[in-house]
Amino acid sequence: MNQLIRLVLDIGPLAAFFIAYNQADIMVATGVFMVAVVTALGAGYAIERRIAKMPLVTAVVVLVFGGLTLWLDDETFIKLKPTIVYLVFAAALLGGLAVGRMLLKPLFELAFQLTDAGWRTLSLRWGLFFIVMAGLNEAIWRTMSTDDWVSFKVFGFLPLSFLFALLQLPLIRRTADPPRRRPGGRRQGLGLAYLRLGRGWAVSHRGIWPGARRGVDLLRSGRTGEGSTDDGPA
After folding, report:
1. Residue 207 φ/ψ region, left for φ over 0, alpha for ψ in the -120 to 50 degree band, beta for the rest
2. pLDDT-derived band of residue 58, with 50, 70 and 90 as boundaries?
3. Is the per-residue pLDDT at 147 higher than 80?
């Protein structure tokens, strides 16, 4: 999938929520958010002919808690949505580690390969990060106004998530396995595919988000002594 389209599909529902809230209120924004999430999920399936698990989980939580918000006319539920999403992802990653499964590996392995120790550390870091983000969301919506919560949901969680993702690049470089070849014979180098925003967090295991492409190319070049090479069509 074209990376610009992927970015629009991921940011679109959050942008729609923010615009609707500023034009109307939290109830209207919640309804718009629900429609936008389903639309983005459908568009993603139409383009890629598959639905990634993390966006699907996020969409289900949005629909359940958004529906409760509108049905009971109580904005508490939509404010709880990020907390639930973060805790679900944290439980999946940390629970997977507890039983010896590294759930990030199948999501990212087409973008980059790490040693088992690298996958365990990366999973642990993201699991703990999600717990911190869940606690932060709880602290904000319980102590601040709805206006402040909406603003932080858009302009706080997003930058924090991208910053944390970028901070993992040294770990990825340090624990990277040697480049492997795909079944078609093309070398698979290091790539970072991190996305997710207002609907929670998710990854796309194909391609590289444009903003991170240069950093990943530099890491690959430093490890292999070769110039940057695309990981294949997005």
Report:
1. left
2. confident
3. yes
Q: How many residues does the chain have?
A: 234
Q: At what angle do helices 157-167 and 210-224 cross, to 10 degrees?
A: 10
Report pLDDT for 3: 64
Query: Global pTM?
Result: 0.70
Q: For residues 186 and 232, is the Cβ–Cβ distance under 8 A? A: yes
Q: What is the DSSP string of the chain?
A: --HHHHHHHHHHHHHHHHHHHHHS-HHHHHHHHHHHHHHHHHHHHHHHSS--HHHHHHHHHHHHHHHHHHHHT-THHHHHHHHHHHHHHHHHHHHHHHTT--THHHHHTTT--B-HHHHHHHHHHHHHHHHHHHHHHHHHHHHS-HHHHHHHHHHTHHHHHHHHHHHTHHHHHHTBPPPEE-TTS-EE-----EE--TT--EE-SSS--HHHHHHHHHHHHHHHSS-----S--
Query: Would you state the pLDDT for residue 182?
Result: 45
